[in-house]
């Protein structure tokens, strides 16, 4: 996972301050845009120890009521509202916990979180805590799909290597995916986990028909890829993007190459792909590329597996590639 520092709004999305005149029904209208920025800094206030604990000490802090002993995480109260405002004191809580509910998954995030999606959003009760902490959730087994983390799943807090003092400095993964040492370690870093050994799904043995269908699907995809590479509009969907993808299906393997507008499919195995797509039936991918149903949906519906979670982004681009080609063809027909 990359944690490259980014601006909240990337430069290319910030328009120049400008104005122009548009004429509608022989009348001129002035159209202008202004830059609107805020340069305020806000204080974490009484929650500062909590965020500094995450940032500097890889600790999770809660507040414990000196009267009733209730431990709230995060420590959002200096006085207990249940105990006539008895003071609370900061305590450290555990870094493993249990999901309070089944987390929904964000696949399409806002620009602020786009580099972190897909991720689960859930509430975890950490050991030693009485209230739930909101966290992001990931898996080390490939793409995050529904059902991997559910209510009651035991999870472990992981700290990102670069921390700035915010809640997204931490996330949780299922404890069962870690070694006992990792699960027991306090302040476990993201870089200490092996993200490169995902669990690829296994498929049944192919029939002769499966193999024939596979060959046919690959041919169709190759023809489609050639069209996409020639379409000015489709090329834009994968502009500046470069990925070598190994695709494994029940009846065989092929490779897809995305290279700054060029899209190519070859019936051969890739030794060190950027990531692996596994889908039992190649028609799932073919349909997506033909713009019959989306590939992103197939991922979410678990018909198409990715070896790397953040490569969902590439799948999103493949969907756009399919859509842009169809749009261009429609426009040409309309002319
Ligand atoms: Zn209390």
Structural overview:
This protein is an alpha+beta fold and 335 residues long. It is 24% helix and 27% strand. The protein has 7 helices and 17 strands. The chain has helices at 48-57, 180-184, 208-230, 232-237, 282-289, 295-300, 312-334, and strands at 18-24, 27-33, 60-65, 71-72, 79-80, 86-93, 96-99, 105-106, 119-126, 133-137, 154-159, 170-174, 242-249, 252-259, 262-266, 275-278, 305-306. Strands 7-9-10-12-11 form a 5-stranded mixed barrel. The protein has a 5-stranded mixed β-sheet with strand order 15-14-13-16-17. Helix 3 runs parallel beside helix 5 (282-289). The longest helix is centred in the middle third of the chain and has 23 residues, at 208-230. It is flat and about 75 Å long. The two termini are 45 Å apart. The mean pLDDT is 92. The chain binds zinc ion. Residues 65, 67-68, 70, 80, 82-83, 86 line the site of zinc ion. Zinc ion binds next to loops.
